[in-house]
Amino acid sequence: MNDLLSLVHSLVNGGMDMAVEMGAPDLILAGIFYALAGVAVLSAVGVVLCRNVVHSALLLTASFIGTGCLYIYLDADFMGAVQFLVYGGAVAILIVMALMLTRRDDMDHSNPSRGLFHQVGAAVVAGGFLLTMGLAALLSPFREAPASPGDSAAGLADLMLTKYVLPFEVAAILLLIAMIGAIILAKGADEA
Amino acid sequence: MDFMAVQTEILILLLLLSTLVTDLAMAKGASRRPVAYLTAAGLAAILAHTCGLYHEGASPVFYMGLFLADNYALFFKQLFLLGMVFTVLFSLDYVERCLPHPGEFYSLLLSALLGMCVMASANDFLTAFTGLELMTVSFYILVGFRLSSADSGEAAVKYLIVGAGSTAVMLYGISLVYGAGGSLDFAAVSRNVHLFTAVGLAGVVLVMAGFLFKLSAIPFHMWAPDVYQGAPTPVTALLAMASKAAGIAVFMRVIFTAFPYLGEFMLPLLKTIAALSMIGGNLLAIRQTDVKRMLAYSSIAQAGYMMAGIVAADYFGMKAAMFYAMLYVFANIGAFAVLSVVDAERGGTSRRHVTGLSQAAPMLAAVMTISLLSMAGIPPTAGFAGKIYIFTATVERGNLWLAVIGFVMSMISVYYYLQVTKAMYRDLEPGEETLAEPLPVPSVARAAALVSAAATLAIGICPESLAVLTNFASQTFMQ
Amino acid sequence: MFDFALTHAWLIPLLPALAFLIIGLGTRRDKDASAKIAITFSGLSFLLALGVLGAVITRPIVMADPFVMKTLWAKVGDIELSMGVLVDPLTAMMLFVVTTVALLVQIYSVGYMAHDPGAGRFFAFLSLFAASMLGLVLSVNFMQMYAFWELVGLCSYLLIGFYYYKDSAREAAKKAFITTRIGDFGMLLGILLVQLTFGTMDFVELKTLLPTYIWETGGGILTIIALLLFIGPIGKSGQFPLHVWLPDAMEGPTPVSALIHAATMVVAGVYLVGRAYFLFSALPVVLEVIAWVGGFTAFFAATIAVTQRPFKRILAYSTISQLGYMMLALGVGSLTASMFHLMTHAFFKALLFLCAGAVIEAMHEEADIFKMGGLRERMPVTFRCMAIGVLAIAGVPPLAGFFSKDAILAAAAEVSLPLYLLATATAFLTAFYMARLLFVAFFGEVKPDCPAQETNAWMRWPLVILAALSVVSGAWGHFAGFGEWIFYGPVGEEHIDWLIAGTSVALTAVAFYLAYEIYVMKRWSAYEISRRLGVLYRLSYNKYYVDEFYTVIRNTFVDKLGAVLYWFDLHVVDGVVNGLARFTGGLSGVLGLAENGQVQRYVAVFYCGVIALTAYSLLIAAMLLAVVGGAF
Amino acid sequence: MMDPFSLTFMDVFRFATHIGLAHFLLLAAVLFAIGLFGLLTRRGLIPALMCVELMLNAVNLNLVAFNRYLPMPDLSGQLMALFSIAVGAAEVAVGVALAFRVYRDRATVNLDDLDHLKG
Amino acid sequence: MDFPLLSTVLLAPLAAALAICLLPRESRDQIRMIAAGTMTLATVLTLYAYAAYDTVEGGMQFTEEVPWITDLGVTYALGVDGISLPMLLLTDVIGLASVFSSWNIEKRTKDFFVLLMVLIAGVTGTFIARDLFIFLLCYEVVVIPIYIMVLIWGSTKRVPKEYAGIKLTIFLLMGSAFMLVGVVSLYIAAGGDSFGMEALAAAGQSGVLDENFQIFAFLLLLLGFGSLLSMFPFHSWSPDGYAGAPSAVSMIHAGVLKKIGGYGLIRLGLLVLPLGAKFWAPLIAALAMVNVLYAAYIAMVQKDLKYIIGYSSVSHMGYVLLGFAALNAVSITGAIANMVAHGIMASLFFSQIGYIYERTHLRSVPELAGLAHHLPRLTVGFMLAGLASVGLPGLIEFVPEFTIFVGTLSVYPVCAFLAIAGIIFTALYILRMLAKVLFGPRVERFAGVPDEQGADLVPLLLLGVFLVGFGLFPELLMGVIRSGVTPLEPLLAQLSAAPAMLGGGF
């Protein structure tokens, strides 16, 4: 897994370094960004439109991976790693298993959508959200001043064990409880 | 790091672990009463312990001002503990009869409690968020805990879906606030002028939406009726009193410490939402026949009242909101204690199920009536004093119209509360005679109901006793 | 002795009141004891009244300088409501009349009610009535008068409805109360206006205040006040158009008719005008109204009486007619004549009614005079008394009616010829219908199944005493100087205008002759005459359809309007209330439709809220940006 | 503040080629909106959960981008994203368990069939 | 501090309620005895207070004061003056009578008397409270017991009792909602540190509350007190409510509870918001006039006895309102006295109707007839109440009505004129009812109905004594009221120059 991670890292960062050297950093950076963003967005679109739920799940993973790459693009290596592991791996697998368990028949139409009316309504709501958030992003005069945060894993570890140790513990309990709860709910289902 | 600041949470965590262990140690199929008693005793002990934690002067802080154990937090923690203790007590029978894994049930209750306590003390978004999620996830599970009931599962799914949507929004908001405020700390955020940019303001309202979801204020209320109705009755009780109060606790802290300078921006919104909640909640409750569902709508309205206190945006308003949150706990304990018994004995909580209660169990009927009247704000129950506090504060800030809406709607609410009273007290029709037969009431539940009713009346007649506490707690923000 | 009576005049009404209490709370089931108590207390009251009369005669108490005693009853704000006694010759005369008639009627009632199980109640009510009437007579102010005025109305109501099991009695009682109530309404308004205008309701004080007031502000508002006040007497004294209750009131026991609806209560209106004559006499317009109302009523009622058949009904219309006379006298400015007639009328009309009672009782409740006949032989004493009464009312000298009626005619003639002619015509009609009554009932053949027998002693002796009074009171009054005693303004000179007197005596004689020819000799068929007169007869027989008119009015403006308003209340006022409730419920239902159980709908709504909030925040942000610019 | 009516092609081009915070914010908004659309239209519970994950993911992008492009003193933005991932995972776990539970009761995991509670 | 007389009067019924709670359901006799004993005690104490009240001194007497809720400025302050003392007496007398009227209730006796005691305590509290908070508290306390009592022991005639009960409850509560807003804004405007009535009144009269505020706040109070007093068009709860309620509730409701409206208008409306009262007075007068005539007309076409008396009480409340609206010492004295008078009279009516209904299960006028033959005592009760209602002298209503008329005729000539005309219509419907129900031929169906005796007779005797006693000796009542109204005279004199809507009169 570590190997894979470093491979991707070297690929992305290597490309960037190359671009910087070539004197057209912005353009190339933009290209990479658009490529990754395209992967993320198109996969996401696929997730919500695919009729086969297994395809949806796979595309979801693709979208997650695209986003994970973007994290690395943003110098958040550790985040990227977690993204691949948790989302790309665990969550996706969990979901696929769930799909298998709850739906054992034909997979082709396993991911039905609501009717057109609903779709239009949903599109309006989603579009509205997009519009407002997009406007918010565009209307805000941020003075960008990228600070190099240094090693993301170390920085995060530091925060997690000092300043945010309490939420860290709480999150641990949260996971524990989620596990217990999931077991009970699922076990209850089995027992019935 | 000052671990004294988190002693309550640590104690709760220890209790949580001991319940887990006890549960595991017990034989399969054995009654889980000991776990319940352990939980209740432990919670009572912690509650007693917290009483000694009120203090003058500076409050203990966990680390870098990120986790405050101030009187404000303490007040809310006591509120949660109180609600939890009583819920455990009155639901002993219910849990044993209707829920498949009572041991874990108590563990989950405690984890939800832990989440709430963290929320009450949290002084940064990350802590608040994790606390909130701990509570929420625990509730997802608790709502779906009644495995014998399909409605319970449906309710849990709905809660999860809408809750996840709300979590997403809140996170979005936090992200934007983080961007604009440059930090996750409430104090640091409050000082950042970028909060006044589009991203900042949008972030603020999204965060607000996330908390308002917990308060089930209109228009973020849609989940509440279904979830309240489907959830096991004790869980509904907790959703109504504790979850909501936790939302209020963190909401007020966020407003007053993270966004203290956004008053002009937020107050019109909050007023509108408060008014909408008061109107909509009460109107929607009118048609309900299921008491739990009715209480869900009523809880929307109650959230509106509390928000009316909050929008006074001053010491008096906060005090009033806290006062109201506390008395609402007692009212809920009473109502849900009765409903739990009814649910366990008669297998439902619709008006049909409470019919004839005044003859089957006169004490329960009386407690139910008193509790409902407290929610409606009819003296001599605590609700009346609470409404006076809230709307005095509201009027003082010039929001007379809000007070008009509040009072008028609370009188309309009497209508649907009285529908329940009517069902309990009316003459039985032919064919309903069995409903008059005495209902076996577990003595603990009876005691819990009585205590809550007594407290409701006591606070109503002598509000000073509680007001002292809220004064003390609300001074936090005045320092 | 006289002083004692005077200073204890307040006992006069209180004694019967006490009797009422004792009977009501204690002995009402015991007929004899009740009767004894009632008569004893009435007797004491009568003695006191005699004492007062003596005191007034022997001491310098004159109209201008009455004896007054009063005590505070209630004080509201700065207005003091007092109760007390005001004794002047007018009062003394009234006290004497009322106590006399009351006592006699009570004695008579012992016989009359001998077989009625409710006699105890009857005596209680009679005592209450006596108390109220005496209180009214003694009033020191308008408020007291109004209070007792209402109370006599109550007693009238209770006594008319004494036979409560009879629907007709029940209805008559109700009608009496409500009709007089209309009058009371006007009177109450008048009294209130008096209080507001003068700040007092006391007769003595008003009398002194009034001239100054008229001097300063003229009589405009006073005219209104006086007219309003006069509405009360119109109702109480059965003046047109509120006379309708009086004939129906005959449903009560006959002693009641005698006491209340002939001798005392119905003259309260006349008495009121007399008592407040200082006010009325100062307002010519009002006097004219009074005169015309009185004159018209007198004639109008007489024309009705001519065609009626029931014994007591004829007497009732006769009473109305005579009350009209009294009003007429007041209207033409002669307090003396009015009061004189009031007194004589009290005696002879009470006599007539008591005779009627005796006859009707003897006839086993048969009231139609045409079913009687020849009673002269069966009931000789009653017949003689009746005859005296008839002659007295017809104004045959030297009986009482002659003097008092002549005084009125003389007074009317002085003021207005039309009124005099009206009064004279009335006198003629009066003589005619009274003669008709007497002839039809007492003359002719005895009907085969006639059960009549002479009455018992309890009933007989009061008749005799009243008959005696009917004979002598007129002459006594005339020659003892009634006019120097009760008067207003300058003392009227006592004389008999022989032209006027002669005319009326002659007309009376003609009327008697006609009646004799028609009803005794049957020279002309009464039926034929009525058929010839056609419309006139029907109008008269049906009392000019006044009752029917009122029924229409009541149905339309009271019951129908009430029904309409009730509809309005149910469907509009309450409809709005229910509508609001239904609207709220409906709104609840409509809003509830949003909660369709679809969780995605819930999410959508949630996000709509979010979008709205965000849009608002963007708006604010844009505004801030416009203000602040790039200052961030 | 940009005046949309005075934008030239060059302005647009420059904006498009200079990747900055705004791009990430927009991307996040787009991803979020897509997820939202899916959440509102997918009938199945599991696909809906997937869409929720998409949304959370979009938010994380926001956090990380803010942390990267603005002068933040520490990595709390990333940390927040990390916690959000954890929370998201927990929610999915519970959601999946619930899916089993509901499937057992109702033999369906379609959200629109879960409308027993309403009114 | 002396013996806490007023506290005893207030708390005795509550103590009785508690005691009854602890008794078993079956011991009906003990329950009744406790209720009756308590109310007798309260009545005796009140009578003592009435006798011992120093009318020369005037003002608040028998005062008690204990700080209660310090952060709101609420004090447990009790006291009576010439305005509230008659009301207190009324409450206890009617309360006592209502206990005896309910003597034969066999269905859920325990619950009934518990609720009745709470109800009486609540009403008592409103009249003796010197603190607005306590006033409100006690006022709203009474509504819910009434609802439950209507629900369980009420009767369904034209409308179902459930409807009548909820209508009454919600109507009154909606009114009180506006009142609460008014009170809260009043409290804030007066400084927000005391709910004490004296303090608020001082603020209101010293100009702390400006005129516009007073006008606004008074309107809110009027909505509340007006609905309570069944002011047109907020009256429609009243007849339905009485018709649905058991007789004890009707008695207390018509007899005392309604009077809280009038009492509140004087105590709060006039004393605290004098300018507001003055401004709205013409409207009140006009509505009062409508009340009198409109309700009288409707009463005329009613069939159900309780509806007749219900509308009659609406009509009579018109006089009270009119007396208030005229805003002078005489008219206000009349208004207060009229409240007492109507209270006694209406509760006597309802107790007698209750007896008829209990024994015959009939209340409809066309179905009843000739009761005088079989029920002479009941007839006396009916006649007393009816004749008092008509305003006969010697009975309690005469002087108050007269006083109101004197006080109002010069202020609102037209309204007063029309309202005085109401005495005709009152006579009409009352006498019609009496005639139909009591008199007429013997009806054998009622031959077996026993006349009132024992406990049933108590309401008649008790209320009758006051009905006649205050009627014959009105100074007993007016003297006390005068001592309460006299202190208002300077205020009223000031007010005469204050502006009113529509130029002040018509």
Key structural traits:
heteropentamer, D: 119 residues, mainly alpha, Helix Hairpins, 72% helix, elongated, E: 506 residues, two-stranded antiparallel sheet, 2 strands, globular
Structural features, described:
The complex is a heteropentamer of chains A (192), B (479), C (632), D (119) and E (506). Chain A is an all-alpha fold and 192 residues long. Helices cover 80% and strands 0% of the residues of chain A. Chain A folds into two domains: 122 residues, Four Helix Bundle (Hemerythrin (Met), subunit A) (Up-down Bundle); 44 residues. In chain A, helix 2 packs antiparallel against helix 3. Chain A is globular and about 50 Å long. Chain B is mostly helical and 479 residues long. Chain B has a domain of 203 residues. Helix content of chain B is 76%, strand content 0%. The model of chain B has no long low-confidence stretch (mean pLDDT 90). In chain D, 68% of the residues are buried. Chain D has a single domain, classed as Helix Hairpins (Orthogonal Bundle), CATH 1.10.287. Chain D is elongated. The longest helix of chain D has 31 residues. Chain D is mostly helical and 119 residues long. Chain E has one domain. Helices cover 71% and strands 3% of the residues of chain E. Chain E has 20 helices and two strands. In chain E, helix 11 runs antiparallel to helix 12. The longest helix of chain E is centred in the last third of the chain and has 32 residues. Chains A and D meet through helix 2, helix 3, helix 4, helix 5 and helix 6 of A and helix 2, helix 3 and helix 4 of D.
Write the layout of secondary structure elements.
The complex is a heteropentamer of chains A (192), B (479), C (632), D (119) and E (506).
Chain B: H1 7-25, H2 33-51, H3 71-90, H4 92-98, H5 102-121, H6 125-143, H7 150-181, H8 186-190, H9 198-215, H10 223-230, H11 233-258, H12 263-285, H13 291-311, H14 315-346, H15 351-354, H16 357-360, H17 362-376, H18 382-396, H19 400-425, H20 443-461, H21 464-474
Chain D: H1 9-17, H2 21-41, H3 45-69, H4 76-106
Chain E: H1 5-22, H2 28-52, E1 61-69, E2 74-80, H3 84-101, H4 109-128, H5 132-141, H6 143-153, H7 161-189, H8 197-205, H9 211-228, H10 237-244, H11 247-272, H12 274-300, H13 305-326, H14 329-360, H15 376-390, H16 398-409, H17 413-438, H18 457-472, H19 475-485, H20 489-495
Antiparallel strand pairs in E: 1-2
* Series of H and E elements of chain C: HHHEEHHHHHHHHHHHHHHHHHHHHHHHH
SS-based class of chain C: mainly alpha
Strand proportion of chain C, as a percent range, falls in under 5%
Q: Count of DSSP E strands of chain C? A: 2
- On the 0 to 100 scale, the average pLDDT of chain A is 80
Question: Which spans of chain A have pLDDT < 50 for at least 5 consecutive residues?
Answer: none
Instruction: Fill in the CATH topology of the largest domain in chain A.
Output: Four Helix Bundle (Hemerythrin (Met), subunit A)
Tally of distinct domains of chain A = 2
What's the overall average pLDDT of chain C, rounded?
86
Q: Provide the spatial order of strands within the biggest beta sheet of chain C.
A: 1-2
Number of strands of chain A: 0
Largest binding interface between chains:
A-D, 92 and 77 residues
Q: DSSP strand (E) fraction of chain A?
A: under 5%
Oligomer: heteropentamer
Q: End-to-end distance of chain A, in Å?
A: 39 Å
- The name of the CATH architecture of the largest domain in chain A is Up-down Bundle
